[in-house]
Amino acid sequence: MATQATSVRHQPLEASGAGAAIERWTLTAGPYEASVLTLGATLHTLTAPDRSGRPAQLLLTTDQLAQILGPARHYGTVIGRFANRIDGSKVTIDGEEYRLAPTGGGMTLHGGPDGFSHRMWQAEAADGGVRLLLHSPDGDQGFPGTLDVTVTYTLDPAGDLTIAYRAVTNKPTLVNLTNHAYFNLAGEGSGDVLGHLLTLDADAYTPADERQIPNGRTEPVAGTPFDFTSATPIGKAVHDAHPQLAGPGGYDHNWVLHPRPADGTPARAALLEEPVSGRTLEVLTTEPGIQVYTANKFQGAVTGVRGVPYGPFAGIALETQHFPDSPNHPDFPSTVLRPGEEFRSVTVLRMGTN
C-alpha cells in the first residue's frame, strides 16, 4: 500500500514532435524510483538497488523522441483496447460483427495501428503515485462503445509498484489491458537476460501458429521448454528445436496461470531473479494469463539511455493479460465488458533482492 513516504513530481519531457507536450511523472519511495510518461501511459524507468545497495535502472528505454514514437513505441506502454493479437481483425459481440483496424499479418495487434500506446493520456496526482485517464470514442480502431480508462501507478518504500486498471463502457465491447515493459535486472544495457532465472506459476500454455496466434488449445508445460514451474535460466532451452520456438526464435507465448483468488487479490504469476546482482522481480496479478516475450527479434533499432543498442534477448516482457485472440475462442476467459460493469485489473511489480 502506498504511503506518504512516496514523493511525486512531474515536469515536461518534450514539447514537440508528439502533437502535445509529454509529461514525465517521477515517483520516489525509499531506494526505489519509477517514472511514467503521459504518452502511452508509459512506465519509462524503474530503479532498484542490488544486494549491496547499488541502484540500477531496470527497464529497456530511450529518451530519444524519434525512437519513442518509432521502434520503441511499445516499450513500457499501456496496451489497449486489446493487448496482443486478434485474428482476422474482426470480432463478434452479441451476434454483431465488428471490423477492426488491421496491423498486418491478417490480424489486429495491440489494439490497432493507433492503439492506446500512441495516445496522450491526461495525468493527475494520486496518493503515492499518478493517475492517467483516457477517453476512447465509439468505433475507435473499430471497437464498439465509448471506453473511459484509468490507469494508476503507485510506488511504496517496500518496493511494490502497483498498476491498477479501470474501465467502463456505454456499449458491449472488448477490453484487455496490459503493460509492455521490458526488464533486465542486471541493469538496462548490461547484456542479455538469458542467465536470469524465471519461475512461472503456470502448468499450461497456449500454443500458437506461425503468427503467434493461439490455436485455441492449452497444453501442459511438463517435459517441454515451456516448463518454468521452478526457477530455470531463460536461456536453458530458448534455442531448443521445439516447433513452438522455431518461428519466433524464442519465447513469445501466453502461459495459463494458476486460478486467481475469487476476491480479486493479486496472486503471484512470475518470479524473475538475476543471480549476480541478487535483484528479484515478483509479478503478482489478478489476470488469468501472462505473455512472456524474450525480445527475440531485437536487432539494435533502439539505443538505450546508456548508449547501448538493444539486440536479441536484451530484456524480457512479462505482460499480465487475458489470453490472445480470446474473442475467437469461447473456451478462453471472456474479455467482454458491458454497460453497468467496471473492468478492474491489478498487477504488482514487487522489487527486492535475494
TrEMBL record:
* UniProt GO molecular function: aldose 1-epimerase activity; carbohydrate binding
Give the catalysed reaction(s), semicolon-separated: alpha-D-glucose = beta-D-glucose
Q: EC no.?
A: 5.1.3.3
InterPro entries given in the database record: Ald1_epimerase_CS, Aldose_1-epimerase, Aldose_1/G6P_1-epimerase, Gal_mutarotase_sf_dom, Galactose_mutarotase-like, GH-type_carb-bd
An example of a Gene Ontology cellular component annotation for this protein is: cytoplasm
Q: In which pathway does it act?
A: Carbohydrate metabolism; hexose metabolism
Residues involved in beta-D-galactose binding: N84, R85, H180, A181, Y182, D252
Q: Name one GO biological process term.
A: galactose catabolic process via UDP-galactose, Leloir pathway
Q: Where is this region: Disordered?
A: 209-229
Active site per database record: H180 (proton donor), E319 (proton acceptor)
Family named by the database record: Belongs to the aldose epimerase family.
Q: What is this protein called?
A: Aldose 1-epimerase
Organism, by scientific name, is: Streptomyces kaniharaensis
